[in-house]
């Protein structure tokens, strides 16, 4: 009897502790923001909030909470009180409101890894100037005259001799994007050892963007910091050599940056600024472009009709050209179905689920207030799968991009919006389109084993994404 009482007492105690802990955050934040009408929602346990269910369920977590609480709900993610917004109008407003105090909300590790001169670390006029400098490096005329010929040359050679090989496209997609961008930036391709070192260090830095900042030997953060220091050293040496040689004819991004730095009116003056621009250039489009490329290969494998259509368009472009042809700007501009495949893969993959912002003032939206200092999760999960914009949203259907003008649609958010709209959008689409051109005009690919894609936290196949290629 006594034992039963003890068990009962412990169970009741545990229940009370559980109830107190699970309501702790909600009560705490309600007291701290007493007079403010906070959005509805649950905030989970102290410190961890609802991070675990969010991490486990990703898009489903957002959808379930949206059904329960509406398109603006509060939660607590990764140590911060957060409001998730899934409403297109509100999201558009949030992305366009940097001047009203709604700033980038990525963890500090993000700008530590990218550097203090990265656009991700700058605001206001400094951001505008640095962003302008970056845009001038990838303007339409630079893409057309300088970058397209290099991308074409690289892809043509990278995608050769793949017949009868089994390749892991998860690895390949990372590799192709990284090697290509290193070529565009610093023309390192002839120095294999240096390229490998740069590739490894850049990859290590990219792994540290969202890591916990614990600087102990062996942690991802510690490895990221070391890799960044190594990059700074290596890039510094390349810059020194270029300056010493005086007559560099690489015609790459680094040459343009060095030339800019000689102009006293240019915003980029110091080596530190040049290095941060290079690291930002390589890493801002690394993960995004490689995931889209990998997912495009997978979706095309799973949808033979789309693959046939893509092949038809690209064989037509190849028709009448000499054997070792080069794609030109008009060819790229005529790849409408190819572009549609890239955009559809990007929409379906919903890479990052959304964008992070933080409030620097109490911000009133739709009758609610997001208190100063909270994180705002601008969720694109629902927008990218909205059946009114994208009928049958779960279907891979590149044709939808041909039939309507979705790319200029005001709620198009695949490349962000407002002052932070992706400046590398056209470069990213160009890289993937040229890759797809050489892939479909040369090969067909069949799946080896059962490839299970993990959609969240990162879109990746747990043990690789294997395809066997044969000539078509
Ligand atoms: C398919 C490929 C790509 C996708 C899906 C993509 C997506 C995005 C998105 C959604 C944002 C906005 C983030 C936010 O507002 O929080 C962004 C920003 C950015 N992207 Fe891309 N991106 C791609 C390729 C590239 C490439 C190739 C570059 C190389 C230059 C690049 C450079 C940047 C930079 C520098 C920013 C920050 C802009 C700023 O702070 O003003 N992106 N990208």
- Count the beta strands: 10
Query: Unreliable runs, pLDDT <50, ≥5 residues?
Result: none
What does the overall shape look like? Answer: globular
How many discrete domains?
Answer: 2
Strand order of the largest sheet: 1-2-8-5-3
CATH architecture descriptor text of the largest domain: Orthogonal Bundle
User: Structural class of the secondary elements?
Assistant: alpha+beta
Fraction of residues in helices?
A: 40-55%
Average residue-wise pLDDT: 93
Give the biggest beta sheet. Answer: 5 strands, mixed
Name every ligand kind in the structure: protoporphyrin IX containing FE
Helix-strand pattern, N to C?
HHHEEHEHHHEHHHHHHHHHEEEEHHHEE
Please outline what is shown here.
With 472 residues, this protein is α+β, with helices and mostly antiparallel strands. 55% of the residues lie in helices and 10% in strands.
Protein described:
With 472 residues, the protein is an alpha+beta fold. It folds into two domains: 2-112, no CATH class; 116-345 and 407-434, Cytochrome P450 (Cytochrome p450). 55% of the residues lie in helices and 10% in strands. The chain has 19 helices and ten strands. The strands form three sheets. The protein has a five-stranded mixed sheet, sandwiched between helices. The chain has a three-stranded antiparallel sheet with strand order 4-10-9. β1 (72-77) and β2 form a beta hairpin. α10 crosses α12 and α16 (336-349) crosses α19 (425-442). The longest helix is centred in the first third of the chain and has 31 residues, at 2-32. It is globular, with a radius of gyration of 24 Å. It starts with a helix and ends with a strand. The structure holds protoporphyrin IX containing FE. Protoporphyrin IX containing FE binds at residues 119-120, 131, 134, 138, 280-281, 284-285, 288-289, 292, 346, 355, 415-416, 420, 422-424, 427-428. Protoporphyrin IX containing FE is lined by residues 119-120, 131, 134, 138, 280-281, 284-285, 288-289, 292, 346, 355, 415-416, 420, 422-424, 427-428.
